[in-house]
């Protein structure tokens, strides 16, 4: 009898041990909560490692360097630095120009200020004139004198075919655009010394500098085609830099980098139209518009010569 009791007790103990082991196994099983937690933890670790790798790449890459545009040379080798005739010489305005260079009347000034309240669009271009050197001012700066005969001669120079358009909400906005492109305002002539007085930092504190040897100036320059409010802004900005403008020619100097950028834009635009660059181009109009915190030029129209 005792043997049977002992066997039953032993069986009960084994059963209790089995149940205890099953309970322990249940506790050790992976729950749904544990699965979701593990998934999120893995994602966090992966994203953290990815961000760290990107940070290391950014540290090792350094500052991005813009790719410089290759200069576009439109004429064949053999052209010198000096132009033919008086085309690039800075001379005092002639008798026919005095009227255009006179200070505006009060009525004209009021009208210009009224027009400037709204957006102003004006174009920079060279003067359309066949005047001679004895009575008129000089040309607008084609620094390429005639070279050897060939197809390179049969083109219209940038100074003649380019037109730069500015959209400005007022004098401050216009000055910011000039500073952004590093375009300098300048005045020369007027019967005084043969110098070029230039102004920069126009939107902050206009600064004056003087070139006492005008023939050394090789940058492309433009004047206003028609009288407009922006011309009055030019005069005011030059005056703020301490430069006299009464009876003088007012122009804008385009830096070489900007000239090269515009030339590459013009070349790409013409070639996309299936035109031969630069021989087929008669006129290219660039427009300056706001772009984020700065400004950008774009081509709004391009006219072509017949037979090209």
From TrEMBL:
Coiled-coil intervals: 7-36
Keyword list, A-Z: Coiled coil, Membrane, Transmembrane, Transmembrane helix
Domain of life: Bacteria
Segments crossing the lipid bilayer: 39-60
Region annotated Disordered, chain positions: 128-156
Protein name per UniProt: Uncharacterized protein
Originating organism: Stieleria neptunia
